[in-house]
Amino acid sequence: MRSYLDFEKPVAELEAKIDELRALGEAGDALAVGEEISRLKVKAAVALKELYANLTPWQKTQVARHPQRPHCLEYIAGLITDFVPLAGDRKFGEDPAIVGGFGRFRGESICVIGHEKGSDTESRIRHNFGMARPEGYRKAARLMEMADRFSIPVLSLVDTAGAYPGVGAEERGQAEAIARSTDVSLSLGVPNVAVILGEGGSGGAIAIATANRVLMLEHAIYSVISPEGAASILWRDTAKAQEAATSMKITAQDMMRFGVIDGVIPEPIGGAHRDPAAAIAATGEAIAAAFAELRALDGETVRRLRREKFLAIGRNPTWASG
After folding, report:
1. pLDDT reported for residue 25
2. Are residues 24 and 138 in the same domain?
């Protein structure tokens, strides 16, 4: 059953009417009802297109968090063959919030690391809503180092509100684990590509998103803190999250303008949750194009270009004019 966001109410009403007419058609004059259904379908499609062409940053935040949006494991299932997941950080334990392993992408070996939020209550609890603990980032670093050792490119699939802020995580060195994972990402002698699938939250995202190419889905967000968190700090009022989202410049379009990311992946009209297969296919094409640009580079060049890319972000004059 499709779940609608608050701002999608006009489309929800039209599609509910279509469902009602379908039910009536099965019991009565299907031909007459069919004409009305066709008219309403066109009207709903137009309304959806207009709605998604003018989303506010807060509305994009809601779309990025949509519970039916495809997550990491769905992208792996749709894009990676012969995937073999690996577990554990060899120091403390396993963290299901980060999925990692090796497989093949279009026939070539690849290391895949990503945040998994879960798709239902049970899996969301198991994966801790995609909020990784230190052992998750240490696992990511372990897999990236293994990939580097065997000259296998790395793909990161980012979708997290942020690293887990619990006491246990802090006691086990959350900040150090994030810094270590970021350092390994920057030091890789093999190409790495990161895709922000939904939420790219703070250091929890950067730990695996420090890549040669960083891509974002059209309605994803990327920020140092959630809009609610920023509103709580700045105004001591989470109700101002919408205002914070606008001020923070967190959309893919903002990130592209600032030079933080390298490309925006178009989503199906109505968001990735309306047509997961199309979103996954488009993401696969973008990933393939990104790796193709990097394939011929030697290790030292890969490292140098990655380093220069992130240094350039801090020198970008666009940030000053915001």
Report:
1. 66
2. no
Same domain, 113 and 19: no
Mean residue pLDDT of the chain comes to 92
pLDDT one-digit tens code per residue, 220-257: 999 999 899 999 999 999 889 999 999 999 999 999 99
**63-89 pLDDT, tens per residue?**
999 999 999 999 999 999 999 999 999
pLDDT at 1 over 90: no
Dihedral over Cα of 60, 221, 198, 266: its sign: positive
Q: Does the pLDDT value for residue 34 go beyond 80?
A: no
pLDDT range class, residue 320, cuts 50, 70, 90: very low
CA 231/CA 235 separation, integer angstroms: 5
Distance, CA of 59 to CA of 19 (rounded, Å): 26
Q: Which two tokens stand for residue 273?
A: 């949750």
User: Do 48 and 105 have their domain in common?
Assistant: no
Which range marks the domain in which residue 41 is found?
A: 6-54
Residues 49 and 106 reside in one and the same domain: no
Consecutive H or E run containing 199: strand 192-201
Give me the CATH number covering residue 309: 3.90.226.10
Nearest to 199 by CA among 153, 258, 245, 148: 245
Is the same domain home to 157 and 257? Answer: yes
**Whole-number Å distance between alpha carbons of 299 and 316:** 26
- Give the tokens for residue 305: 């270009």
In this structure, the answer to whether residues 307 and 292 fall within a common structural domain is yes
